[in-house]
Design a protein that fits this description.
With about 600 residues, the chain is α+β, with helices and mostly antiparallel strands. About 30% of the residues lie in helices and about 20% in strands. It contains 14 helices and 28 strands. It has a 15-stranded antiparallel sheet that branches. Helix 4 crosses helix 14 and helix 13 crosses helix 14.
C-alpha cells in the first residue's frame, strides 16, 4: 500500500530536506539543495527509484514517532515481540557537505534491525557504481558521490542493486549510520561525529525555538510551524521554498502536480508578518534581503517566483520514468508559471518592504529607489488582465485580487511618503492611482445583487483571495461589502467547513481538468475574516479544527480532502504553516502572546 502524504515527517539542514515515512524509510531527498535532483525518489515512484529504510526485521509501520520537543530531530520507535528499538533521524547543519544521520538505539530486549539503502541519482533514474573503501560504501555516478559508514561498523553487503546491513541491538546499545554527499570530483569531506552532532542539533533547535514570543493556546503547533518554516529556509540566501517536494497531487490520481521547491513573492508579506510577530527579526531580515536581491533589475522583468538564490530560469519538464505519487502523473520539475504576469506581486513586494520599514529593520539604501521604479512601471500596466494569484492556465482575466494588490502598492507608497517626505516621489500621482483603482474595483468587481465581490470583473465566480480585503486595508472589516463577501464564500466555496480557492465545476478558470482539495491557507484566511467581522468564537472553532488536521508530527500539506480525510498537495507547505502562525497570533496573540 502506497504511503499517504501525512505518513511523512520532515528533517533537514536548512539547505535541503528529507521525508521519512512511518515505516522508517527515507523516500525523498534532494542533494545538495532543495531544488537539486533527488537521490531518493520512492515518494514519486517505487523502491527502485531510491530510498533508505531502517526498521526491525519483519516490521511494518512504526509503533510511535515524534519530534524531540522544539527540534527537527525525529524519533521513530517499534515495539516487537523481542523488544523495542528507536531510530533517530536528523540532518546536522552542514559545514561543507550535507549529512543524513540515522542512529539506531535498543530500548528493551534484543531486536534485529535491517537497513537497505538504494541510492538512485537524478530523480531515481541513475544506478551508481558502489565500492568499498576504508570501511565505507562509496556510490558514484556522474557528478554525484555518496559515502555510507556506520559507527560502530556493522557487516554490509550488496544485493539487488542496494546496500544491506543487519545487526542486533540490546537495551542501551547504539549504531549510527552517516550518509554524506559531495561532488564526485572532490575528495571526501571530513567525517562528523554522529553522536556529538545529535547533541548539537537538539541544542541548536531548542535555542532557536526559545526565541518564539507567542505564548498563547496551541503554542506547540505554532512553534512546530515556525520550525518548519525555518527548515524550509535556504540558509545561504534567506529564501524560503514553498515546499520541500514536487508533484504531490492536489487530487488523487490527478494531473495538478507542480514543483514547489522555489520561492514565491506571493508569500512575502504574510511570511514577513509571521516571523516579525513571533520574534524572529533575523530571519525576517534575511527574507527581506533575499527579496531585494531577487527583484532587483527592470521592474518589467519582475517574476512571481525565483530560485533559492534568486535564479530566474525555472524551466518545466516531465520525468516519465516516475509513476507518480499513488499513480498521479505527470511528475514535473521546474515551473512554467514563472513566465506568467501576476500584477499582485507588485503589491506584495511594496507591502513587504513597507512592513520591513515600519518594523525598524536595518535600512537598505536601494529600497526606496526600487519601490519608486516598481510604482512607475505598475502605473503603466495595472489595467492589463493577468493570470492572478492562483497562477491559472486558462487565460488572463481582470482578477479582483490583482487589482486590490495594485491598490495596496499605491497605498503603501503614499503612506511611506507621507511619513517620510524627505524620500521624494510622485505623491499626487500615487494618491490618484490609489483612488482610481479603489473606485474601479468597487464598481466592476462587486456584485450588488449578491452583495459580494467576485473573482474577476463581470464574473459570477468567487475567490478565497477576497478574504484578504480587510487584512490589506482595502475596506474595513465591518463594511457590508466585506461581510457579504465573507458570507458568500462561507456558503459557496466551503466543503465540510473548509475553503476551496475557487470553484472547479463547469468551465474551469484555471484551464485544467479535474478538481482539487480544500486549501488550508484559505481556510486560515476564512478564520481570520470571521474573527475580523465579529464571529470570533466561530473563528476559533475553525482554527482548532485546522490545527487538528496536521499529521501526528504537526505537519500540514497544501490541501485537505475532507471526504477522504487525507492531506493533498506538496508537503510540508510553507503557506499552510504561515497561515497557522498568523491566525494564532490574530486570535490569541494580543491577549496571551509575550
Amino acid at each position: 500500500m502506497h504511503p499517504r502524504i501525512e505518513d511523512y515527517a520532515l528533517i533537514g539542514d536548512q539547505q535541503t530536506a528529507a521525508l521519512v515515512s512511518t515505516d522508517g524509510s527515507v523516500d525523498w531527498l534532494c542533494l545538495p539543495r532543495f531544488d537539486s535532483a533527488a537521490c531518493f525518489a520512492r515518494l514519486l515512484g517505487d523502491e527502485d527509484n531510491g530510498h533508505w529504510r531502517i526498521a526491525p526485521v519483519g516490521a511494518g509501520r512504526c509503533t510511535r514517532r515524534a519530534y524531540r520537543p522544539d527540534t527537527l530531530v525525529l524519533d521513530t520507535e517499534w515495539e516487537t515481540d523481542d523488544g523495542a528499538v528507536r531510530v533517530t533521524d536528523f540532518m546536522p547543519q552542514r559545514d561543507r557537505a550535507p549529512d543524513l544521520v540515522r542512529v539506531v538505539e535498543g530500548l528493551r530486549g534484543e531486536v534485529t534491525v535491517h537497513s537497505v539503502l538504494r541510492l538512485r541519482f537524478d530523480y531515481g533514474s541513475v544506478v551508481p557504481w558502489v565500492r568499498r573503501t576504508d570501511g565505507h560504501r562509496v556510490a558514484v555516478a556522474g557528478p554525484d558521490s555518496a559515502w555510507l559508514r556506520s559507527e560502530p561498523e556493522v557487516r554490509s553487503w550488496g544485493q539487488d542493486f542496494g546496500t544491506h546491513a543487519e545487526f542486533t541491538v540490546a537495551e542501551g546499545e547504539k549504531v549510527a549510520f552517516v550518509l554524506t554527499w559531495h561532488p564526485s570530483h572532490e575528495p571526501r569531506p571530513p567525517l562528523i561525529d554522529p553522536y556529538e552532532s545529535l547533541e548539537h542539533s537538539v541544542e541548536d533547535w531548542r535555542a532557536w525555538a526559545a526565541h518564539c514570543r507567542y505564548d498563547g493556546p496551541h503554542r506547540d503547533a505554532v512553534v512546530r510551524s515556525l520550525i518548519t518554516l525555518k527548515a524550509l529556509t535556504y540558509r545561504p540566501t534567506g529564501g524560503i521554498v514553498a515546499a520541500a517536494t514536487t508533484s504531490l497531487p492536489e487530487e488523487p490520481g490527478g494531473v495538478r502536480n507542480w514543483d514547489y521547491r522555489f520561492c514565491w513573492l506571493r508569500d512575502s508579506t504574510l511570511t514577513l508578518g509571521a516571523l516579525l510577530s513571533a520574534g524572529y527579526l533575523e530571519e525576517a531580515e534575511a527574507w527581506r534581503d533575499w527579496l531585494l536581491r531577487a527583484v532587483a533589475g527592470n521592474p518589467a522583468d519582475l517574476q512571481i517566483m525565483y530560485g533559492l538564490a534568486g535564479e530566474r530560469r525555472l524551466p518545466e519538464s516531465e520525468l516519465p520514468w516516475l509513476s507518480g505519487f499513488a499513480g498521479a502523473t505527470p511528475v514535473r520539475i521546474g515551473n512554467d508559471a514563472v513566465n506568467q504576469l501576476q500584477l499582485d506581486v507588485y503589491g506584495e513586494v511594496m507591502d513587504s518592504l513597507s512592513l520591513a520599514r515600519l518594523a525598524g529593520m536595518h535600512p537598505r539604501p536601494q529600497v526606496w529607489e526600487l519601490q519608486c521604479a516598481l510604482m512607475d512601471f505598475l502605473t503603466t500596466v495595472w489595467r492589463q488582465p493577468d493570470e492572478g494569484l492562483w497562477e491559472v492556465r486558462g487565460g488572463r482575466r481582470q482578477f479582483v485580487h490583482s487589482k486590490v494588490m495594485t491598490w495596496v502598492a499605491a497605498d503603501r507608497a503614499v503612506r511611506t511618503l507621507e511619513a517620510h517626505p524627505e524620500l521624494g516621489g510622485d505623491l499626487d500621482g500615487w494618491r490618484a492611482l490609489r483612488e482610481e483603482v479603489h473606485r474601479e474595483v468597487c464598481e466592476k468587481g462587486y456584485d450588488p445583487e449578491r452583495g459580494t465581490f467576485t473573482q474577476s470583473y463581470g464574473s459570477a465566480e468567487l475567490d478565497a483571495a477576497l478574504l484578504l480585503l480587510p487584512r490589506v486595508g482595502f475596506l474595513p472589516a465591518d463594511d457590508p461589502r466585506v461581510v457579504g463577501t465573507v458570507d458568500a464564500i462561507g456558503k459557496e466555496l466551503t466543503r465540510d467547513g473548509l475553503v476551496r480557492r475557487y470553484s472547479t465545476e463547469g468551465p474551469p478558470v484555471d484551464g485544467l481538468p479535474g478538481g482539487e482539495g480544500t486549501f488550508l491557507v484559505c481556510s486560515f484566511w476564512y478564520a481570520d475574516a470571521l474573527h475580523a467581522t465579529g464571529r470570533t468564537d466561530e473563528a476559533r472553532r475553525l482554527f482548532e479544527r485546522l490545527v487538528g488536521l496536521a499529521n501526528d508530527v504537526g505537519l500540514l500539506a497544501e490541501e485537505y480532502d475532507p471526504v477522504a480525510g487525507r492531506q493533498l498537495g506538496n508537503f510540508p507547505q510553507a503557506f499552510s504553516h504561515i497561515g497557522l502562525v498568523n491566525t494564532a497570533l490574530a486570535l490569541f496573540g494580543q491577549d496571551e502572546a509575550g
